[in-house]
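Query structure, 138 tokens:
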């Protein structure tokens, strides 16, 4: 059974947004990122990881663009990434190849690692990612 384990929130001010979630909801900071693709924080309640990100790459930001603020994508930890990949494709939810290539995270690219995920186009334009290894803090 897949479990919801990851929510990414895009923002233009990761410092104040992460401080809000840490202060109001007592989330713990478990990591930071500052790469060519994004900068921000990884927060957790011990069960679900919340990534607070300012996207720097238009490719990685996807259709929403780097200037978007709001929920960006949701992630499911799955027991079998290959089987879930097949199920997603059969349900007309194809992988987002350009994003996965930029992140070096397409199927076969290391689903056993932490924070390694593959992104797909879900219903109503919702981006979905799957990970067999899960996310830091989740």
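Result returned for the query:
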């Amino acid at each position: 059974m897949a479990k919801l384990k990851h929510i990414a929130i895009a923002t233009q001010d990761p410092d104040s947004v992460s401080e809000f979630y840490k202060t109001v909801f007592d989330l713990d900071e478990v990591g930071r990122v500052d790469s060519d693709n994004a900068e921000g924080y990884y927060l957790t309640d011990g069960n679900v990881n919340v990534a607070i990100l300012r996207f720097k790459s238009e490719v990685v930001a996807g259709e929403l663009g780097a200037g978007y603020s709001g929920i960006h994508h949701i992630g499911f930890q799955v027991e079998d990434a290959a089987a879930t990949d097949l199920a997603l494709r059969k349900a007309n939810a194809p992988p987002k190849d350009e994003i996965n290539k930029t992140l070096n995270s397409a199927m076969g690219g290391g689903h056993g690692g932490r924070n390694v995920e593959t992104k797909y186009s879900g219903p109503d334009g919702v981006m979905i990612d799957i990970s067999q290894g899960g996310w830091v803090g989740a």
